[in-house]
Amino acid sequence: MEQQAIAVNEPTDANGLKLTQIPVPSPGAGQLLVKIAATGVNFIETYQRSGIYTVDYPFVPGSEFSGVVEQIGEGVQNFKIGDRVATASGEAGYSQYALVDAALTGKVPDAVDLHVAAALPLQGMTAHYLVHSSYMVHNGDVILTYAGAGGVGLILTQLLKLKGATVITTASTQEKKDLAKAAGADYVVDYDQVAQTVDKVTGGKGVNAVYDGIGKDTFDTSLAALRRRGTLVLFGGASGQVPPFDIQRLNAGGSLTVTRPKLVDFLTSQQEMHWRFGDMVGWVASGKIDVRIGAQYPLTEAAAAHTALESRSTTGKVILLQ
Ligand code: NDP
Fold this sequence. Notes:
Helix content: 25-40%
Low-confidence stretches: none
Number of domains: 2
Bound molecules: NADPH dihydro-nicotinamide-adenine-dinucleotide phosphate
Strand content: 25-35%
CATH superfamily of the largest domain: Medium-chain alcohol dehydrogenases, catalytic domain
CATH topology of the largest domain: Quinone Oxidoreductase, Chain A, domain 1
Number of helices: 10
Distance between the termini: 17 Å
Radius of gyration: 20 Å
Number of strands: 15
Largest sheet: 7 strands, mixed
């Protein structure tokens, strides 16, 4: 049986994302075939599409999706056909049916909408590992982050507030600033106001940690914003990748730490995945955190979704609907 999918055949801009037909795959041992309800659109797919990250062509992007289990591979326990599920670890999710390892799949409770569930595996679990593992946030910390109205940003701010941190963030428009504020950020400023806001809020001491997903344009500001022994968690490059830098800057800045994490290294076991995903769906189901679906596109308009994400015009989560 064939299905619709979106593929790229070479490194390309968003217009190179083309509708194609591919076979519906069969689940191997330990795998699930999921009938997709919504696919999460993430920055990593723009890096893969444009050649910043290496992939094999033709390439169907999409590791994050939610949906319903359609078929079960050999040896899979704990799942049955019809289960509502979501994952950040699927293959070729810009499609209608996709495979995922059962061990890397979470169940979605009835209280959580499947479209919202498509935001939780990648952006939600990223926010989770950032505040619990990359740098462990403590009550009373002052934290700087950016893009407070973004997909990760809106969730990250809410998790930081649950931890008792003071949050300084940025946003480029008034609408985005209002969203970041509503998520609980204490200070929402323009990018060129970051240094003076950090100074004012911390009395010149600097912040405990920076979560920086912007990269090239903000790296220097982020390093300069840290207090002695502060930690810079560089988790993305929405403005471009950070070039090599002189490690002596960490010494000069006050014994600073820089880490460059990625989600897969924080989902190293079924237990770890269940911890992070379970927390996220639980907090959404109980109303502790809110997930904003900022834009949804038909699968066939994946190119428009990429263009919107790269042009800074989105807020919250962007999803594709099958
Ligand atoms: P967002 O929804 O946050 O979108 C990116 C935002 O970054 C924009 O809306 C914009 O907000 C801001 N931005 C600032 N400068 C630029 C620029 N030059 N071009 C584009 N955007 C810019 O995206 P996500 O939440 O999906 O991802 C945020 C970051 O997190 C990305 O870098 C992504 O790669 C990273 N990430 C990393 C993971 C990891 O494990 N390491 C996992 C998931 C995401 P504004 O207009 O307000 O400035």
